[in-house]
Amino acid sequence: MIDAARCASCGTELALEMRACPACGALLHAARLRELAQSAETLAKSGELQAARDAWQQALRLLPVDSQQSRQIGSRVADLTRRIADASTSAAPAQQPPEKKSSWKGGLAGGAALASLLLGKLKFLALGLMKAKTLFSMLAFFGVYWTVYGWPLAAGLAASIYVHEMGHVSMLRRLGIAADAPLFIPGIGALVLLKQHIDDPVVDARIGLAGPLWGLGAGLAALAVFAITKAPIWGAIAALTGFINLFNLIPIWQLDGARGFHALSQWQRLTVVAVVALALVATGQGLLIVLGLVAAFRAFQKTSGAGDLQTLVTFVMLVAALSWLARSVG
Fold this sequence. Notes:
By secondary structure, the chain is mostly helical. The protein has two domains: 29-87, no CATH class; 128-325, no CATH class. Helix content is 66%, strand content 4%. It has twelve helices and four strands. It has a two-stranded antiparallel sheet with strand order 1-2. Strands 3-4 form a two-stranded antiparallel ribbon. It starts with a strand and ends in a 5-residue tail after the last helix.
């Protein structure tokens, strides 16, 4: 027996998974939708943006996908996501009045703050490995590349890609967006599957570029170890990390650079092309030729975004830093 319900307006028999009556168009969850809308509006007014977005997302699941109401609420969700992203990047600690301190006390306080930040990042990275899917796929990835490059470089490659993917996860958490844990795929790298669609190009750009930003941090950490130990393997890992993350900046397909380019206007895209050309002259990194050609092609497409200065600054900084880090590769 198939479970069914009846439309309260016209009595048409309906399957339980339906969201609207095909005969009269009545919404089957109208009362619940009104409750969620009222709750979302109240939460938004009180500044509880993530809770408001959660309420609107619950409402979306009760509406037909192709309905006008679904499109309107989807726009509200996108707007709230943008506001959450703006709040997360602009939030800064309250300014404290200057206080006279001895130089050693100031250095101690700064060192403690840096240590706390690093420990927080390390704890976050460790928690990511608690997911069985991430851990076992990462071990499989490591095993494949161990047979080709040896275990030191394979371990460095797996670790740098993991840090890159956790950069995406970190930004998604800051924005309150649900996503799966990183999944490693030999021959491809790794990916994080989102559990919801991101409509706002600026938000999508921030999520996309967070990966290369964390990847740059991993590369610089490897470079620091190389500077201390003089062990060539650490220099190789640093350069390879830079190369992989620079490759991800190519604005094509599902790469992070494509997500960043969605938010850039035409003149901002041309600025990226100019920076790529300068970086090519300065470093001789051959991958920049491909990046520059694709970026130039994308700059003259009619699908340019509205423009976002933060995305532009982040993109050009990554191009400069990663091309310098990867200059000995390719």
